[in-house]
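User: Protein folding is very new to me. Would you mind checking the protein record under this note? It all follows right here:
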Amino acid sequence: MSTVRGARPLIEKGCLLLRPRDFHATPFIRARPAPKRSPKVRATNPPAGGLRIKRTYEYEESLPPIALLNAARKSGALAVEPDQALEFLREYQALAGKSNAGWKQRLCDEHDILPSTMALLAGILKRCHSGGQKALAKSVMLAASRLGEKAATFDIISEALRVGTLYEYRAPLERLGTLAKKDNDPQAMTLLGKVLMAERRENEALDWFRRATREPTGGLDFDGAGEALVSEGRILSQRNDRNGAKAAFEKAALELDDPSAYFYLAQLQEHRSSNQQVYLLKAASSGVVEAWHNLGALELEKLNTQERKPTSLDDYGMAREWFQVAAAEGFGLSMINMAIICKAVGQMDEALKWLEKAGGAEGVRSEAIALKRQWEASVS
């Protein structure tokens, strides 16, 4: 009979097999989510101390769409008028790359733009698609961080963690360290812990996660407290400290309603118990794809206990439904399970289509390719 395996952190790739039917259970969650003057005059006559430089992108092409700025203004997020923001960004591009010390601060003062507004504008630009817009977003976000906007520093380091480029951001990392060590900022402590985890310095990471959520340096009333507790639980799980991990996950789940914590907590419950089901459903309702997959695996186990075996896709009921929604979100293990289900009821063409999709999913590519070759050989 198939069994559901425990969950691995979301940043760790891998798959676990269910035997004897080769259906997949969920990996552990991987560890796993700111005065008017003619723009043309400003572009051709930058303020004193500014030197014109060769542009990689056209200024206008690098600006954010006015519709996004209007929406941000109407929502109250953007503190300045859209035309004022565009004027600032045009002149920022005209001056970018200059060595004149303090030009960014002078430009902000001249346009009455705060670092927090710069970070917001950079965030809007990040949502755009062109290379020029993304390049400007990065530059403005770095400038906001340098001018002391901690949200910009957090954004830079979080993105660098995601794509594995921490080595490029020494200055923002130093600012993060200052926020954590001198200012006792719990969000900075949590992010510093994540940086240390990425560097495989788990002991130091655990210390910072605990500082972030415990007195006298921290607490649970900040955005990210649940993530700090989940990260603590992950480290303790790796050390086989089941009780410590469970305590961390329970606090994050039951006190902070953290979706990932519910998923982790489900893995510590008795298999197929009502608590496991409830915690998985809570995680699934918040969009944890691995929870969708695990719920599919549980439903599949129920089917395997029945005398009548499925003969059509509809016979797989909720197992198929859960695997399908997880597969639609790009979860490779669910794609392979969908392929196996289709093959089991004689729909080989559909099964091969799912394997084709799984071949493009991270973590299961090699298995999908191997299965596809094996199945194609069996029908040739």
About this structure: The first helix runs from residue 39 to 44. Residues 287-379 form a domain with the Serine Threonine Protein Phosphatase 5, Tetratricopeptide repeat fold (CATH 1.25.40.10). The beta strands are 16-18, 23-25. The longest strand covers residues 16-18.
